[in-house]
Specification:
By secondary structure, the protein is mainly α. The chain is 64% helix and 5% strand.
C-alpha cells in the first residue's frame, strides 16, 4: 500500500514507523506530564488486549496502549535493581537488537514473534552488557569531566 504525497510515494510501513517514532518523541517531550503507575499500566494492558482483536483499532491501540506500557515498564524502579550498577544497557540493546532479530529470523524463518522476542531479547542484553563493559564504559573515561561550551569567535 502506498500513499501519494505530491511527487513523494510513502508506503504504509513508512507511515507506521513515523507514527511509532513520533509517539516516542511525544512521550519524551511530555515526560514531565506523563505518570506511569502499576494500575494505569494494567488498565492499558487490558484495553490493549481487547483492542488488538479489532483490526481497525490495532495500530492506534499499539501506539497509545503499547507505548504507555513499554515506557511504564522501562521507567519502573523495580527493574532498575536488576541492572548492573552504573551500567546503561539501553544503547547496546538499541544497537544490537535489530541485527540479532534479523540473524535469528534468517536462521529460523518460521519463528513466531514471541519466539523471536524470547531469543532476541536475552541475546541483545548479553551483547549490550559486553558492549557496556568492553567498549562504552572504558570509552567514557576519555570524556572530559567538565565540558565547557566554547564561545564563538567574532571576526
Amino acid at each position: 500500500h502506498h500513499v501519494a504525497l505530491g511527487p513523494l510515494r510513502v508506503s504504509d510501513s513508512m507511515l507506521w514507523f513515523a507514527a511509532l517514532f513520533l509517539t516516542g518523541s511525544c512521550a519524551y517531550v511530555f515526560r514531565a506530564h506523563i505518570r506511569y503507575d502499576f494500575i494505569s499500566c494494567l488498565m492499558a494492558l487490558v484495553l490493549l488486549a481487547d483492542f488488538l482483536t479489532i483490526p481497525m483499532l490495532f495500530r492506534a491501540s499499539m501506539l497509545l496502549g503499547g507505548a504507555y506500557i513499554v515506557f511504564g515498564v522501562a521507567t519502573a524502579p523495580v527493574f532498575h535493581r536488576f541492572a548492573p550498577t552504573g551500567a546503561d544497557l539501553s544503547y547496546g540493546v538499541y544497537l544490537y537488537g535489530f541485527p540479532v532479530q534479523k540473524l535469528v529470523s534468517w536462521y529460523v524463518p518460521d519463528i513466531t514473534p514471541w519466539g523471536l522476542f524470547a531469543v532476541a531479547l536475552p541475546a541483545s542484553l548479553a551483547l549490550a552488557a559486553l558492549s557496556w563493559h568492553l567498549i562504552e564504559s572504558p570509552a567514557l573515561r576519555f570524556k572530559p569531566r567538565k565540558w565547557q561550551r566554547s564561545k564563538p569567535q567574532l571576526a
